[in-house]
Design brief:
Mean pLDDT of chain B: 83
Oligomer: heterodimer
Number of domains of chain B: 2
CATH superfamily of the largest domain in chain B: P-loop containing nucleotide triphosphate hydrolases
Largest interface: A-B, 36 and 44 residues
Order of helices and strands of chain A: HEHHHHHHHHHHHH
Structural class of chain A: mainly alpha
Number of strands of chain B: 18
Order of helices and strands of chain B: EHEEHEEHHHEHEHEEHHEEEEEEEEE
Radius of gyration of chain A: 22 Å
Strand content of chain B: 25-35%
Structural class of chain B: alpha/beta
Strand content of chain A: under 5%
Number of domains of chain A: 1
Low-confidence stretches of chain A: 1-10
Strand order of the largest sheet of chain B: 5-6-7-3-8-9
Number of helices of chain B: 9
Shape of chain B: elongated
Shape of chain A: globular
Number of strands of chain A: 1
Helix content of chain B: 10-25%
Number of helices of chain A: 13
Largest sheet of chain A: none
Amino acid sequence: MSTPDSSIHQDESWDLIIDAGQLSNRNHFKDFLNNRDLLSLLVKRDLVTIYKQTLLGPLWLLIQPILKVAIFYFVFGKLAGISTDGVPAVLFYLTGLTFWEFFAAIVKKSADVFTANQHIFSKVYFPRMVVAFAAVASSGIKLAIQFSLFFVVWIFYLLQGLVHPNIFLIALPVLLLIIAVLGLGTGLILTSLTAKYRDLRFVIDTGLQVLFYLTPVIYPLSIAKGSFFNALLFNPLVSVIEAIRFSFLGQGVVDVKFLVYSGFFAILTFWIGLKLFEKTERTFIDTI
Amino acid sequence: MGNVLQIENLSKAYQIGEIGGFGVKSKTGKIEALNDVNFEVMQGEVLGIIGKNGAGKSTLLKLLSQITTPTTGIIRAKGKIASLLEVGTGMHPELTGRENVFLNGAILGMGKTEIKSKFDEIVRFSGCDAFIDTPIKRYSSGMKVRLGFAVAVFLDSEIIIIDEVLAVGDAEFQSKAIQKIKEITEDGSKTILFVSHNLASVKSLCTRCLLLEKGKLVFDGDIDQAISKYMGYDKHISDRNRIWNTVMAPGNADYKLRAARIVTDGKTFEDPLSTSDAIRIEVEIESLKKVKRLDITFQLMSDAGDFLAATSTFQLPDSDFQTHENGNITTFACFIPPNIFNMQSYRINCLLLENRKTVVHRLDDLFKIGFTAATRDPETWMGQAKSYFLPYLDWTIKARLKD
């Protein structure tokens, strides 16, 4: 039977329409749900392959922060004599480092999405965003492992009564979310911008190092004074790291105003990253 | 049944030149890898796509499998599209065969439970049972290919796009793969787009064929016609029925060629020739001179000009020759049995000789003919022999018991 609107009806029966003239409206949430299995396998690949043919395996995830904290302890604590605001230095550095590493891992991994996976992307289609989500998830698992190290050390000092956790701990999931969203957003922007012109790749490592020193990981925010203090607060990570340290150790500067700023900053970064990513994924394979 | 794929005005332009620096981009031009392509595919069709390198086959597949987006045009599809542009995409050398089956399956769009339920079949098909828990970096390249292909053939997508994957692997693997593809297509629910340079496999698998040339769709339809067009046969010659009037007729003062034909029973002059066709080459000569016997020699040359074979009326006794009194137009016909030629193009020269001695006229390139593949059993070897001829000869096979 042919009705006047049969052509319209036919148009609706297509499962997939690629129109060069129209930007596809992606539903990342749906993509995410439909590709859960792929996501988990990509995470597994990321985690498993790094430590294949190593003797210590995932223990390296614990050894790395221990070595770093040892260096911080001697260089910044003993040599430079930077105050840790009355908190045991080892725990102080470990707290900041554990959560900073979470951010840095997400940025590094997601900034690599297009370049590191170009071979797969040039042969098979699946929502590219899944790989970026996998970067966050594998960083999350690394965080969980490193957090266990932190947790043991923290309990050790807690039992000695040297640290004073408080009710602010319940905000931890929100704080982690801010770090994750900010990290993913930054990574998405970087991977989109480096797909065609690779110049930015050279500054990612340096940029992260600069940001590391602009974030109170090896020093408490309280030793920053005047305009330097104000300038630091523009870094959205500052208030988050300080808040985390405050909730676990009872040391730190917490200002809800700046936490809200960090939250908005993270969302804005993520939104910009997402739009750039969507634009780039359409044709990046032609230019990479 | 209905359309499962609809392609409208599809084009893809690429920038030529290197990216980087400043201002370089503006100096270089663009290339249309695909230019205004339109076609539809019905459910259950096995569509072959052929064309020379750079014709746009890969670009078309990339657009269909959503790897990149078109510059203009619309693609509409019903059902899940699985693209098999390579076997074993995303497999990680450090992971075991088992882990890679899951990873590769997930990359191709299968869920964990789906892979789990098919896992044993996949492993059996790949023949890698013994090594399934070994990292695939220790596999031979053939094993990797087999494992990758095994995952792919168990994909449950409505539309499957296959690009040259059969080009890898040995003859045994190729015939197994083709057999499997044939099985997949049998129930008619799956639609397959198949790109290959192997015309024999295209011919045995596909029901319809697209021919791309410089980004344009130049032919859509019958496989034989597509193949003969692709091999360029009809470009230099498609005319197998040549007739000349007296003024234009080639020849010399004494002899004129009035007609030349290549006849195949059951085929018109336009139908492409297949290697399994019996053909008859005929020439009609008008002679103005009285001569005891006029002989004809056909020379068969390769496309490149190598002299391959000759056949002549020399072998006939004088009694077979008719005198001028019987008429002044003589038709010479040479029968060539089927299954002599290979899938190639050939040139035929024609020589006129008087009294088995003197060449009185020579017609070079009287015909240029080409042969497409005969239909083959998909279980047999799909490779293409490079020889000039591939004759079917008489064989006997006898078995006896050991004394």
